[in-house]
Amino acid sequence: MGRYEELVVASVERLATEGWVVGPPLEAEEWRRRIKAAARQEGWKLATGVGTSGYPWAARTDLDDERGTPWHRLGMLPRSFFEMYGPEGLTKLL
Fold first, then answer.
1. Which of 77, 33, 89 lies closest to 56, judged by CA?
2. Residue 59 near residue 69, CB atoms below 8 Å
3. DSSP H stretches of helix in 18-77
4. Is residue 47 within 8 Å of residue 74, measured between CB atoms?
5. What Rg, from alpha-carbon coordinates, does the chain have?
6. Mutual orientation of helices 3-17 and 28-42 as an angle, nearest 10°?
7. Is the separation of the CB atoms in 51 and 31 below 8 Å?
8. Are 35 and 48 in contact (CB under 8 A)?
9. Which pLDDT tens digits describe the chain residue by residue (94 residues)?
């Protein structure tokens, strides 16, 4: 398994535990494609996008409790949250 595949596996694991993940800026569309395929296989509903900083993101929208996700704590929708906060800003919020 290559480094990129390991990154995708780690991203899927984070989606399973945290409900959201920010991906690498390189090959953002390929990362999103793979994350969407993994979500379909798991039966998850997923919102994805690429933020203004160029980083792709994915967030599960099928969680009842949203597990304390940052957008829920701020009263936002996932898409709005990830458009406003890049990966650098996420570490400050969390």
1. 33
2. yes
3. 28-42, 70-73
4. no
5. 12
6. 50
7. no
8. yes
9. 677 788 888 999 999 988 889 888 888 888 999 999 999 999 999 988 887 778 888 988 887 765 567 777 777 787 787 777 666 655 555 4
